[in-house]
Design a protein that fits this description.
There is one protein chain. This protein is α/β, with parallel strands linked by helices and 332 residues long. It has six helices and 19 strands. 42% of the residues are buried.
Length: 332
């Protein structure tokens, strides 16, 4: 087996393991790419991917036809001189981290980990590794997200209050992960919920893999009494769907706390009565605990807040640094 070191290159189109055909969450490279979840793919054209069956089915439900090498969790296989294994990330149905072994050591690529148990997805798994590559997804690595249980309870209470007064609250959320968790939460509370067709299709995929979400219905234009309406917003752009046909009240479910104060002059933002936080990925303090379990010698962060995470967690491993575009640190 070659003794040449592997290098990881950060680009504007995901990460690339140099001297190999394997990319990590690439959208446009045209080469083989590990896809960590269906939510990680924003392009309509799907590249050649390594992904779980669940991820592939969600992509198909979103009308994206993947060219996929379908892999199961905890079933190692080899690509060149790399032995790789998909581990559940705990964040979304089919979501995975990538565990890589070579003659030079072990690496864990974990862009989106959720250590909290979510009823609709498989629990997170990790392994010890000399190199850990993590996504920096929350703006402040020192700040904990609101308690999930309390946020879920607060959402149920708020929804019931509106329904009792004859209103039909509109909940805007990410269609993948959040949409299914909220569907199940409302149905388990015996609340009538109608979901947008985009969420409906993904709900059916979740159910086909054993996640019982409850008795939700497809949103239609027929007159109904008070009920909850679940609408999608873009996970990538945070944009809202057309809401002119709905009177509200409007509620939103967000993945992370806002970095800046919302512009209250925005016409739609002023309609939002309340915001709830149910993230599909761990916050800074939770990632710190995960890092201790993985015990890496080298820790890398990538994403919009990589520099902040490196500054805050500079003592979490012997070597801690950010990954920037065109930066090529040696990993093995």
């Amino acid at each position: 087996m070659s003794k040449e070191l592997l290098k990881l290159k950060s680009t504007g189109d995901g990460l690339h393991i140099a001297d190999s055909i394997l990319w990590l969450d690439s959208q446009l490279s045209g080469d083989l790419s590990f896809l960590s979840s269906a939510a990680a793919l924003s392009q309509s054209k799907v590249p050649q991917v390594i992904a779980t069956e669940e991820t592939v089915k969600i992509l198909e439900a979103c009308r994206k036809k993947p060219h996929a090498l379908v892999c199961q969790y905890n079933s190692p296989f080899t690509i060149g001189r790399m032995k790789i294994e998909l581990l559940p990330s705990g964040s979304i149905l089919g979501g995975a981290s990538l565990f890589i072994e070579t003659d030079k050591g072990r690496s864990l690529y974990a862009p989106c980990l959720q250590p909290n148990s979510i009823a609709t997805v498989r629990k997170m798994q990790i392994k010890k590794a000399g190199v850990l590559i993590m996504g920096a997804n929350h703006p402040d690595p020192t700040q904990s997200m609101p308690n999930r249980r309390k946020e879920r309870e607060r959402l149920i209470t708020t929804v019931r209050d509106h329904l009792s007064e004859g209103r039909s609250p509109v909940i805007l959320c990410n269609p993948i992960a959040a949409g299914q968790e909220i569907t199940k939460l409302l149905c388990d509370a015996n609340i009538d919920v109608a979901v947008h067709s985009n969420i409906f299709r993904i709900n059916r995929v979740y159910e086909s893999f054993g996640s019982a979400l409850g008795k939700f219905t497809l949103l239609d234009k027929k007159p109904h009494g008070p009920r909850v309406l679940l609408l999608p917003k873009s996970r990538k752009t945070n944009s809202m769907p057309p809401v002119k046909n709905f009177s509200g009240p409007f509620l939103t479910v967000e993945e992370t706390l806002p970095q800046f104060r919302r512009d209250t002059t925005d016409a739609f933002v002023t309609k939002i009565e309340d915001t709830f936080y149910l993230s599909s990925y761990g916050d800074g303090p939770e990632l710190s605990a995960i890092i201790q379990l993985v015990a890496p010698k080298e820790l890398y962060f990538f994403g919009p807040y990589a520099k902040r995470y490196v500054q805050e967690m500079k003592d979490a491993a012997p070597k801690v640094r950010p990954l920037y575009v065109n930066d090529q640190p040696t990993l093995f």
